[in-house]
Design brief:
The chain is mainly alpha-helical and 370 residues long. It is built from 17 helices and no strands. Helix 14 packs antiparallel against helix 15. It is elongated, with a radius of gyration of 30 Å. The model has no long low-confidence stretch (mean pLDDT 85).
Length: 370
């Protein structure tokens, strides 16, 4: 089996898979908006793959009835992805009748499709020839380009609903966020190659585009088996992050930053060995949840990391500039309540013990003098 045969087999399998998934959702006993959205989405992907997979190797000449069969469905994919995003962000808004207007462009695309399908075989072949020669701009080509612009518009709108999930912290800790990020990347690559293939009329780009689309279908299929609770987990993460964001929505973050900086750098509040998240929150006129969320979102630190960071920094300054003070006195001075806790925190931060750090500072000073 050569490479072309393997590619053809892979794309055919993905096309069939899209249809199977669409039927699976449509025949489900649970009639939910999510099932309907996914069923229509995979049905649209089925027709898109069915019509485009025969273009790169020119098999379309053997099946001219497939030409432009996907046009109406291209106008559906964008709104469906957006509705899916809305469902995950806020289920109650999915039933809005306003969303039906997003599908109106399917009507003129359907009329173009009907016109093409009712045309003679010779006219269809002429339109197919134009795909490869680009002698003139046909209605089908114009509709195709407009549909991709329309799809891009909804991809951006969908991304806007979830951009807050793509932070370094969430991508590192939440598997559902990483999976969504992967799906978004593949989707944007597929869309980009679609635009490029139309603008350049390069068959290799068309082939890459079909392969990416096939991969998206196959990836989503295996995703449902390996992570059956993916949508639920993602929903939980979205709800949790939206709640966190509302905690800070009415705060003046610049003013909060200045107050915190003053407490830490001027008043050195971290020196208090009994300082807590609650006591620091009171100083800032916040509740503990707000302060914790501010530290996580804006500084990438939790409360203890923030306090230890400033304690260790001052300890390093004192170990360097005050050779007469004992290590224990420095530990107490910066806010640690025992030598062991100071030693552990210092070692974790610098990779050496306080005594080793002081010794290194002395050696470095001696070398600079000589």
């Amino acid at each position: 089996m050569n490479l072309n045969s393997l590619i053809h087999f892979y794309e055919s399998g993905a096309t069939f898979l899209a249809l199977v998934i669409a039927l699976g959702y449509s025949l489900s006993k649970e009639k939910q908006p999510l099932k309907s959205i996914l069923s229509f989405l995979y049905l649209s992907l089925f027709f898109l793959l069915l019509s485009t997979s025969v273009l790169p190797d020119r098999r379309i000449y053997s099946y001219p009835f497939l030409f432009s069969l996907h046009l109406p469905f291209l106008f559906a994919i964008g709104p469906l992805l957006y509705l899916l995003s809305i469902y995950l962000a806020d289920k109650e808004k999915v039933n809005s009748k306003v969303h039906l207007f997003y599908f109106l462009p399917m009507l003129p695309a359907t009329l173009v499709l009907i016109y093409i399908q009712m045309s003679s075989e010779a006219y269809k072949l002429q339109l197919i020839d134009n795909i490869y020669t680009r002698e003139q701009v046909t209605p089908a080509a114009l509709v195709l380009f407009l549909s991709l612009v329309y799809l891009g518009f909804f991809l951006v709108r969908s991304l806007y609903l979830f951009y807050f999930l793509f932070t370094k912290n969430l991508l590192r800790n939440e598997e559902s966020a990483r999976i969504l990020f992967t799906v978004v990347l593949i989707s944007f690559f597929t869309w980009s190659f679609s635009i490029l293939s139309i603008l350049t009329n390069h068959l290799l780009l068309v082939q890459i585009n079909v392969l990416l689309l096939s991969t998206l279908v196959v990836f989503s299929f295996f995703l449902q088996f390996k992570y059956p609770n993916f949508l639920k987990d993602l929903d939980d993460v979205v709800r949790k992050e939206k709640y966190k964001r509302t905690l800070l929505s009415h705060l003046d973050l610049e003013d909060l930053e200045m107050k915190l900086k003053k407490l830490l750098e001027e008043e050195k509040i971290y020196r208090d060995d009994e300082i807590s998240l609650q006591s620091l929150a009171i100083e800032l006129n916040l509740n503990p949840h707000q302060l914790s969320e501010y530290l996580n979102q804006n500084l990438g630190l939790n409360f203890f990391s923030l306090i230890h960071k400033h304690r260790i920094q001052e300890a390093k300054d004192l170990l360097s500039s005050d050779p007469d003070s004992t290590i224990l006195s420095i530990a107490y001075r910066v806010g640690f309540n025992s030598k062991s806790s100071f030693h552990t925190a210092f070692l974790k931060d610098t990779g050496m013990s306080p005594s080793e750090f002081r010794k290194k500072v002395r050696i470095d000073k001696y070398k600079r003098k000589n």
